[in-house]
Amino acid sequence: MMCIFYSIMKLFYRLFIYIFACLHICVFVSCSSKSVTPPQAILPVPDKHQLAWHELEQYAFIHFTTNTFTGKEWGYGDESPAIFNPVDFDAEQWVTNIRDAGLKALILTCKHHDGFCLWQSKYTEHSLKNSPFMDGKGDVVKAVADACRKYGLKFGIYLSPWDRNSAQYAQPEYIVYYRNQLRELLTGYGDIFEVWFDGANGGDGFYGGARETRKIDNKTYYDWRNTHSIVRELAPKALMFSDAGPDIRWCGNEKGFVGDPNWNIINADTLYPGQPHINKLLNNGDENGTSWIPAEVDVSIRPGWFYHENEDSKVRTPDNLFKIYLESVGRGANLLLNIPPNKHGLLHENDIRSLKEWKQLLDKTFAVNLAAKSKVKTDSYRGKSKTYSANNVTDGDKDTYWATNDNVRNAFLEIDLGKSQTVNYIVVQEYIRLGQRIKNFEVEVWTDNKWTPVNKGTTIGYKRIVKISPVETQKVKIKFTDAKACPVISNVEIY
Ligand code: FUL
User: Fold this and answer.
1) Residue 199: CB within 6 Å of ligand 1?
2) Which of 10, 243, 298, 350 stands 20 to 30 A from 28 (CA)?
3) What's the maximum distance between 2 C-alpha atoms anywhere in the chain?
4) pTM for the predicted model, two decimal places
5) pLDDT tens digits for 329-368?
């Protein structure tokens, strides 16, 4: 009896010692993780609205005005409102096709350079209130904003600063007019995610009948600072786009690509009209930039921004759209793809077909992430703490990341796919909340018992998609060879 009692006591004692030891290990591990501080942000960093904007990745542009009916690209400003009559206008047809193509938002030209307003502005007669469309009672801005809300797309506005219709253009009164219109749009149509300020200022125009050339000083005339504060006040969540920011910058071309490198940062003071290397600067950003002003790539699915029947056979192919995707979203920029509705007020079937097939191509290419949950080796991780382990890049959680010690500028991630697979694309994302860091990287694959270089690049930022010639391999190595500060990578995917 004593013997049994003694054995039970011994068992309890061992169990106690075991639990005690486990607890100690847990406390030790969690303390050691806690004691390793996260990397400090390298400034500048995106604000919360910019972070949400990066996640949109791609959205649609809609160019629609009297040009749709005249065949012009830049209306002179003397077009009669009577010509605006999209008899089959259906905003839901636009929005559902745009949504099905995987685009997450829509920006509408509420007023282009011709000055014609797609809403019932109380400050001008040059609008759809004087057109036969819906007996002058229509509001295209409202219909599109409502459709966006109904189908879960964000809505943005384009309001051309240059107005070839207004008699007041180039005079101080026009700035008051412009701001009044901006207020109407910012207050009457629900949440606005982006306000698009165009940089074009051509010169000649109708200007209330004057039919002359009017020049303005682009640096001073618009007094942008005070216009920006109206947007900040009335739509605090909206980001402002222009050649010079303040929140999003133009990518320097309308061809559909951002540079490599593509820094999200730039020095705002260097973005003035007439700057000799402005387009290259906008295309690449500036490694030493002092503001987070990421690039947006605006490009049209057709040769023109507006619909022209004679361009029906010139709609970009799905392959071409895919290339644009790789050279915009795949280089860490956002893509703003223009799809102009036709005279009926509908997206044309050729554009819809191209969008659909492009989406199928994207879905097929990025269908199965071969790296999901796979094991990742590294030569370095921060403070040897699990919190910063390499496996964080394949855990599917965008809030965890791999980081190294502060002094490291050169480190690798080696992803083991478990078995040999065909690899075409490698996706890498930096944890940009802590700033943009990587300056150079190289990709290698394990073939014939050795590492073979397959591609290299410069910046990563929010997302980098690296295309390689299809290769059979079990292991992929990403070597970060130079950085502004220690690498902080949140995600790696392999397709
Ligand atoms: C340019 C404009 O002049 C074009 O007409 C178009 O709107 C494009 C997106 O921006 O500056």
Assistant:
1) yes
2) 10
3) 115
4) 0.93
5) 999 999 999 999 999 999 999 999 999 999 999 999 999 9
